[in-house]
What we know:
The chain has about 120 residues and is an all-beta fold. The protein contains no helices and eleven strands. Strands 2, 4, 5, 6, 9, 10 and 11 form a seven-stranded mixed β-sheet that branches. Strands 1-3-8-7 form a four-stranded antiparallel β-sheet, with no helix packed on it. A hairpin with a 6-residue loop joins β4 and β5. The radius of gyration is 13 Å and the shape is globular. The chain starts with a strand and ends with a strand.
Amino acid sequence: QVQLVESGGGLVQPGGSLRLSCVASGFTFSRSYMSWYRQAPGKERELVARISTSGGSTDYADSVKGRFTISRDNAKNTVYLQMNSLKPEDTAVYYCRRGGPVVYWGQGTQVTVSS
């Protein structure tokens, strides 16, 4: 069955960095657009970044442009989110998402930015 397993979250100070990973299985990863979403307490889930099948095209939320980078390794069935210059407002649960006719979500990984 389809599985998306995120890792790499944690507690980091403002200005710090984290790298999230999402390992996919159960579908043809290289043919799937992949995205990262996040949901902060009391807020709706929002798109952070998405990447095309080859990795040649990416999009970012305005709030993370220039700080976050999405990438993928189709040989490892993995999508990454490199997060730099983290701010307290980046605190959220981060989810990996596979788009398409049927959408799949990972279980999420908590990112907390606090001094």
